[in-house]
Amino acid sequence: MLGFIFFVFALIKVWRMGGLKLVFWGFCCDGIL
Description:
It is a single chain. Helices cover 88% and strands 0% of the residues. It has one domain (2-32). The protein has helices at 2-17, 20-32.
């Protein structure tokens, strides 16, 4: 559950940044999960 909340928070954060950050976070999330 905590991981899901962190994922949503990161997703919103990335949504505002956009660009390569999105791809970077995508690989990080895949690595964690």
